[in-house]
Write a structure and sequence with these properties.
This protein has 208 residues and is an alpha+beta fold. 20% of the residues lie in helices and 32% in strands. Helix 1 runs antiparallel to helix 3. It is globular. Residues 1-27 form the signal peptide. Keywords: Disulfide bond, Glycoprotein, Repeat, Signal.
């Protein structure tokens, strides 16, 4: 059977469009391990295979008076310019129901060749002592309130990403972290082209 020229052209266009669409920079679901994430500044990290907000998760125990951090692996770093206007998010669990009385919990620091930006993306009294996972997110946009160097310049060459996990004023809390993700916003024109092309392909297949 001869191949439809229009179908071949649409296939090529869709492949090119998919390749150009911004994708998630990275997504850590921790289903098979820590995925290169580490804890520092007084956090003792353990990977747990089940019980997360879907699959595995990271369990971090506070071990010192310092504010412990979650550190992104090198695979997450580099040019994030395509994620400007997108979202950074993570899930957290108050594992041992300790009082969430340390406001800097959820402080995200992104360092790049152009400097550093910082923002506490979580409201006070979080994560609550309710035994539930909670999702926290922030836009990668100056309007979100990032302090420091120009955000766009930092995102052009990210060299470090940390999330502060300390949520209690003491050395007793245990926090769970899961589903750390950075996602981009698809360009409207690309998304429309993709949807239109899929519709045309579906119509051609029905006719054939």
């Amino acid at each position: 059977m001869a191949r439809c020229p229009l179908s071949a052209t649409l296939n090529a266009t869709l492949i090119a469009t998919l390749a150009a669409l911004p994708l998630a920079a990275s997504a850590a679901g921790f289903d098979a391990g820590d995925e290169g994430w580490t804890s520092s500044a007084g956090g003792t990290q353990t990977w747990v295979a089940s019980g997360g907000n879907g699959g595995g998760w990271l369990r971090v125990v506070d071990a010192t008076d310092a504010d412990f951090l979650l550190n992104a692996p090198s695979a997450w770093l580099g040019n994030w310019s395509g994620f400007a206007g997108g979202t950074l998010s993570f899930d957290a669990l108050n594992v041992n129901n300790e009082s969430p009385d340390w406001a800097p919990f959820g402080e995200v620091t992104i360092t790049g060749a152009a400097g550093t930006v910082m923002l506490d993306i979580v409201a006070a009294n979080n994560p609550p002592a309710d035994g539930q996972w909670h999702r926290y997110s922030v836009m990668l946009s100056p309007s979100a309130g990032w302090a420091g160097a120009p955000l766009s310049a930092v995102l052009a060459n990210v060299t470090s990403l940390t999330i502060k996990g300390e949520f209690h004023a003491g050395v007793t809390e245990v926090v769970g972290i899961d589903n750390i993700q950075v996602t981009a916003v698809p360009e409207p024109a690309s998304a429309a082209l993709l949807l239109g092309g899929l519709g045309l392909l579906a119509g051609l297949r029905r006719k054939r």
